[in-house]
Every structure is written in C-alpha cells, then in structure tokens.
Amino acid sequence: MTYPSRQQALFEPPIDRPLPLWILFPLIFVGVYLSHLWFLRLPYYWDEAGYYIPAAYDFFRSGSLIPYSIPSNAHPPLPSLYLALWWKASGFTPAVTRTAMCVIAAVALLGVYRLCLELNGRAQVAAATTALTAIYPIWFAQSTLAHADLFAAAGTLWGLAFYFSRPPRDGRAPQPARSMGASIALFALAALAKETAIVTPAALAAAELLRALRATGADRRRHLVFGLLLLLPMLPLAAWFAYHRYRTGYTFGNPEFLRYNLTANLSLQRTFYALRSRVLHLAAHMNMFAPVLCAAGALLLPPLPEGARGATRPPISPAHLASLFAVLLANALFFSISGGALLTRYLLPLYPLVLFLCVSTFYRRVRYWWALIALAAAAFLMGLFINPPYSFAPEDNLTYVDMIRLQQQAIRQIVTRFPGRTVLTAWPATDELTKPELGYVSRPVRVVALRDFSLTQVQKAAASGANFSLCLAFSTQYAPAQTAFNRAALDESINRRLFGFHRDLDPGAIARILNGSVFWRASSNGEWSAILQLERPQIAHSEFPGMQRKRPARFRPLTPKFGAAGPGPRFRRPDPEPPA
Fold it and tell me: Is the pLDDT of residue 240 over 70?
C-alpha cells in the first residue's frame, strides 16, 4: 500500500504458493489447543478475575454493555460479546472460555503468517515467524487468558496484513480498494476490543501523511487519501466513548482508573524509564535477546545470492520497513506514557513484527538460517519454564499457572478446614474467595482486604480492629533476590517510586506481626502462598457467610458515580481503605 508500483518490483520477491489459509487455520488451532490442553480447566487469573470475566459475565446475564458488578474502566465491549456468545452456546466454564481464546490466538497467528507472506513473499519465512511467535513465552501464556489484548492483537495483525497487501500483478493499480476497506474494518475491530489498538492505524496514517508531503502528483493524492482513511477506525471508538459517557458520566472510565493509567504518569522522568523498559521488553525480555542479537550479527554478513543471474535475496522494502518501525516506535512511546503498570501484554501485536525482522534477516544473509531459528525456539521454550533474574509479571510465562494452582490449594484448605472463618487477604484473592463464578469456591467466604503484604500494610492490619482469624498470604509481586546483575539492570528505588514496586514479607514475618502462626505453606517457581492462623478476638456471625454478600441486581441502573476503581492489571490495584 505504501509503494509506487514500479519501485515495488525492486524489493519484492516473487510470492510463494503456500497452502490456502482455510487449510492452515485448523492446523494452527489444533496446535494451539493441544499445547494448552493442560491449562484449559484452570480458574480465572488476576486481570481475568478482576475485570474482563466479570464484565463479560454481566453482559451474559443482563445484556448490559457496561459492567455493573465492578466499576467500569471504559474498555470497549467486543471481548464481552464474544465470550458471552461462547457461554451461551457451550456453558459458563473456564474450559469454554480458554477454548474460545485458543480460537482467537489461532486467528492472530494466521494473521502473522499472512502478514509475513505479504512482506517477504517466502512461505518458509512466514512459517518460521509464526512458529516462533506461537512459542514466545508472553504470547504462549496469553493464548488462553481472557484479556482484551489478544483480541486487539488479532485485529491489528490482520489489519496490517491487508495494509501491506500486494498490488495486482499487472501493476495498473497500487492497491485494491477491498484491501484498504478490509484493513480499516479490522483496525476498527481491534480498537473496539481494546481502545489502545488505535495507536497502530494512527501511526500508519501519520506515516502516509508525511509521505504525501514529500510526494508529487498522483502519489501525493494517493498517500493523502490513505492517511485520511486510516483515521476512520477512530469513529466507532469515539462512538463507544460517547455511549459510555452518556450511560455513566465518564468518558474514559472512572476517575481513579484514569488517574492511575494516564494523568498520574505525565512526567518526563517516568516516561524516560518506562520507555527504557519498553525497549527491553521488545528486544530482550523472555529471551527475545537471542534472535535480536543473532539478527544484529547477521547484518554484518553480505546478502546471499538467489537465482542464476547473480541477484541477491531482496531486502524488505524501505517503505514497508519505515512503516513497521513507525508502528513499533508509536506503540512503545504510547505505552510508556499511558498505563500505570508496564505489562508486556500491551505490546502483544509488536512481538511478531520484531520476530519477522529477525527471521527475514536470517533468511537473507545466513546460509543455514534454520539453525538460528532452532536456537531462538530453544531459548523461547526455556523462557516458558525458567524465570528471568529480575522482577516480571507471572503472566509473561507459565509462572501464572503455578500461582493459580497455589491459590487453589490454599483456598481448598480454607474451605475444608476453616469453614465460616473471616480471612484477611489481598486482591485478587479477595475476589477469588467471594465470587464463586471465578472457579475457586462454591460459596462466598467473608474477607477483609488489604493492599498487599508489605511491612506497612501488614502493620496497618495488625493495628486495626477488623474481625478476621485467618490470613491468606501470597506473593503479590515476583521479586527475586537482589544480585549484582538485577541491581544494575533495574534500580529498585526507581521502581518503588515510579511503578509501585514493593517486596512482600515472608509468611513467618507476617505471622509474627499479626500474632499468629503458619498453618500451611507452599511454593513453586518463585511464587508462594500461605495460610496463617491468628489469635484475635472474634465476633460471632448469625448469618451464613454467603448471605452477607449483596449481589448486584440483574438490571442495576448505571449512575455517574462509581467510586474507587475496580481491579486492573497486575500491580495496578488501587489502594483500598485500611481494615476497619
């Protein structure tokens, strides 16, 4: 879409004739489904339990596009509609939800394949990039989690595939109108899945308008039209925000959510450190450094010959390369300014682009390029199970599975050995104990909430007169022991001040402060959970625990005032009130 047709032939190799996409899709889906078979029945985790599942469940029960059981964060409703349709057809269970997400993951991977084929023309390059994307730890972990980011990634990647769609072979038209229309529609769907997906078409629109300034004649008109058309996906997103404001009184979510994710982050210092982290997320995190460093070394080699006339394997078109870097840069900058937590899943559609640049470099300059593909694959498989020596979100690899299973074990102990007790704990365990629909309990358990298990929060709980006799403690942040490596790579004081980092106390220390003892403790892969028995005066309850929890009405009317923000991404939980 971005070339003049005559220049296109200078950089574009002849496209291979791979298998049709309708044949590839079931193969990709079966691969995704079987590789996640052991995780399909896991209950909901962290942000799933905190926002996306309750929002979809509200729509499933009442048809309300705006959630009423939790404060609305103004996220668009497309994921809720999709999940509710699956639940209507197959039942409301975690297995159904995770199977539905496998379908979206397969659609996204098929988009990766189509995008690479449009950019490079070689089926082996497209297949290698798609395979590496599927096993990259962050992508693999997100493939069954019900987050909006995977929906947005699928729409964005398919939108890019149609944006880079090749012109007709006769060269008479630079771009079929149907490809432009499909690209705009897919970018709009991506934005209706996650509002932040609008950054990609906006970046491409800016690139097209800049090209229009430098071009002349028909080329200028073409780039100008493309740039203006790429702004159209903003219209349905604007309509959604207008509807949200009409129903709630807030355009971009409740005030606490907006403050944490945008207005509180507008400082040059935080943006600088966040951008540094985003660059590391794209180029090094979860062993991404393996293909990136190999690609940097491969650039020192000359291109390989191809064909009988002494030609070399063609590079990526400069226009396409500029568009890809515009998308990478715009997203990295945007997610360095917005978002209270530096979650890597926000960058989900960018990882296939980085991998494509690496794989296409291997193919063009390294004779045994498949060996580098195998090296990158081995590094990614190791990253699935081996944690890095620095703090990260467990949803970046299979550590989230360990956390879920530890929570299941702890809650099972509480339900069977201590029925009727009030439990002191932190989010998301507060939701796991009080909401049976999340898959951890069959009946609600009374809880007292605190923010985390840092020294300050535990001391506040000990000084309060709250009525609790148990404590479910767990690791709210993965915090490895400090070494020379991670002390130099990640300044903990900066993370504490700018990004809310903290270190949880160990169960023994928590028990001593709360005047109790450790009844049960388990750990796995850096995560831990513990049940503490506490010696505190108790207040008798005449009601059954489940009767004290006021459930929302089926059609509760929405009001402009929601109060505090609901659960957000990990490390993003707003400060709760101290225990009373």
Answer: yes
Residue with tokens 């629109």: 205
Half-sphere exposure of 250 (CA within 13 A, CB side): 21
> CB count, 10 Å around CB of 38?
10
Cβ atoms of 111 and 158 closer than 8 Å: yes
pTM above 0.85, yes or no: yes
Radius of gyration of the chain (CA): 25
CB 396 within 8 A of CB 138: yes
Cα–Cα distance between 474 and 136 in angstroms, integer? 27
| Angle at which helices 148-163 and 78-90 cross, to 10° | 110
Q: Which helix (H) or strand (E) holds 527?
A: strand 527-534
Which residues are within 8 A (CB) of 72 and not within 5 positions of it... i.e. 6 or more apart?
55, 66, 244, 248, 250, 253, 254, 562, 566
- Residue 125's nearest CA partner among 464, 360, 441, 414 is 360
Ramachandran class of 526: left when φ > 0, alpha when ψ lies in -120 to 50, beta otherwise: left
The token pair at 395 is: 């949803």
What tens digit of pLDDT does each residue of 450-496 get? 998 989 999 999 988 888 999 999 998 887 766 655 554 456 667 76
- What are the structure tokens assigned to 498, written together? 């700018």
Order across the sheet with 527-534: list the strands: 447-450, 423-426, 470-474, 527-534, 516-524
> In a 3-state reduction of DSSP, which class is residue 472?
strand
Under 8 Å between Cβ of 187 and 159: yes
Residues 314, 120: Cα–Cα separation, whole Å: 9
